[in-house]
Design goal:
The complex is a heterodimer. By secondary structure, chain A is of the alpha+beta class. Chain A has a domain at 4-62: Ubiquitin-like (UB roll), CATH 3.10.20. In chain A, 18% of the residues lie in helices and 22% in strands. Chain A has two helices and three strands, in the order ββαβα. In chain A, a hairpin with a 6-residue loop joins strand 1 (9-15) and strand 2 (22-29). Chain B is mostly helical. In chain B, strand 1 and strand 2 (260-262) form a beta hairpin. In chain B, helix 4 (66-91) packs antiparallel against helix 7 (149-177) and helix 6 (123-143) packs antiparallel against helix 10. The chains are: A alpha+beta, B mainly alpha. The interface between A and B is medium-sized, with 24 and 34 residues.
């Protein structure tokens, strides 16, 4: 008996309650989308953690390279004027 | 981490990031030994959850009430879930799920030796919840701050779910302890048998734990074996009094100067025997896991074959 080929891996996203967006909670193996949803229900919502589940084949997720973190995310750090705290306004005003 | 050319400077940058409490994530560069240590530790932890379903699972059909049966079912189902969270964490390091199962059932990777002890009476279910899960939680709380992100996140989730495991064990034992004389004795007998193995769960003493220094430097381990063990003893002694049950150690007493409980010497020879495969249930645990794996093989294959056929129908249509 061999394990040469595992069932594909899926990423699981849960909506905690209505009004919130789906958030990544983990991953699991399943042969198809239907069983991935069933398995996600059993594995990630045993205590009412969600009202909606998304499952996405892990191979369909494209990620940024951690080594590119600098070039990708640094530029905004010198643009402090994008934040409200950059501006001086009278303290006694609601603004 | 800034890109560098040599392994040495990468190692240095990695250590600096760890020192600055930066979490390591799956696609980050990491030293090969960090990766292999992490795979081994997470896999062993996952195997422990999966094998850990057996000693208690044996009591599901014999639970004394519907309430206790429902609780035990939920607990064993949780252990399965915890195993799966952990396998998923290990897989982020590039190992396959099937590969890990294979390593377990061929004895090339280990699981916690605590699960090689038998569950002789119903009170053992209580003692496992109170002592074994209590020890596991002590260890796992420290691991919620471990440096590898996926492992730490699995630990947070597991700790949140496990607090009920310890409480149900405590409650079960409390009920037996205050029950008939025979029930009280059954509870005491279970505690007598599980106390020392529970202390061994934290692993060998720091002086004989060769990998501790590196694991601490990499912040895989945040608290040493002996410190965790002491933490567990200090926490458990008052609980045993509340239960009206004795801990089987004549040298157990409060040490005012240390601010901790002193306890007697642990039989490390027994630990080595059980880890070495000579515990009461080692062979049985692996045989049951292997049978489940082999018995389930056709289901895994059938589900995959069905999906392949669905795919070909969709593309033909």
């Amino acid at each position: 008996m061999s394990h040469s080929e595992d069932w594909p891996l899926w990423e699981v996203f849960l909506r905690g309650r209505r009004g919130l967006s789906h958030q990544h909670v983990g991953s699991l193996h399943a042969p198809d989308p239907e069983l991935a949803l069933q398995n996600a229900r059993d594995l990630y919502t045993r205590r009412g953690e969600g009202v909606s589940i998304w499952v996405v084949r892990s191979t369909e997720v494209h990620a940024s390279d951690p080594d590119d973190q600098g070039p990708l995310f640094d530029p905004p750090s010198d643009k402090a004027y994008r934040h409200p705290t950059f501006y001086k306004v009278p303290e006694d005003l609601q603004l | 981490m800034p890109p560098t050319n040599s392994d040495e400077s990468r190692d240095l940058a990695f250590q600096e990031a760890i020192d600055a409490d930066r979490t390591v994530e799956p696609r980050d560069w990491m030293p090969e030994r960090y990766r292999s240590t992490m795979v081994r530790q997470i896999a062993q932890h996952a195997h422990s959850e999966i094998i850990g379903m057996q000693p208690e699972g044996n009591w599901i059909t014999r639970a004394p009430s519907l309430r206790r049966k429902a609780i035990l079912l939920a607990k064993v189902q949780d252990e399965a879930g915890h195993g799966l969270y952990l396998y998923a964490a290990a897989e982020t390091l590039g190992v396959g799920r099937g590969e890990l199962t294979e390593l377990l059932i061929t004895g090339r990777q280990k699981y916690s030796s605590i699960f090689n002890y038998p569950t002789l009476t119903w009170a053992d279910v209580g003692a496992i919840g109170w002592l074994v899960d209590g020890a596991a939680i002590t260890n796992q709380l420290a691991l919620t701050k471990t440096s590898y992100g996926p492992y730490a996140r699995a630990m947070v989730r597991i700790c949140r779910e496990e607090s009920f495991h310890q409480r149900q064990g405590f409650e079960l034992l409390a009920e037996l302890s205050r029950g008939t004389r025979a029930q009280h004795e059954m509870a005491q007998d279970a505690v007598n048998r599980w106390w020392w193995p529970a202390l061994m769960m934290f692993g060998p003493p720091d002086s004989e734990s060769p990998n501790t220094a590196q694991s601490m430097a990499w912040k895989i381990k945040r608290v040493s074996n002996d410190d965790l063990r002491q933490r567990f003893v200090d926490m458990t002694v008052p609980q045993s009094r509340a239960l009206g049950l004795d801990l089987p150690d004549s040298q157990l007493r409060w040490n005012e100067a240390r601010g901790h409980y002193d306890f007697g010497p642990i039989d490390w020879e027994e630990f080595r025997q059980v880890v070495g495969g000579h515990g009461a249930c080692n062979a049985q645990r692996i045989a049951v896991r292997r049978a489940a794996d082999e018995g389930g093989a056709w289901v895994r294959e059938a589900a995959r074959a069905w999906e392949v056929r669905q795919q070909s129908r969709t593309s033909a249509a």
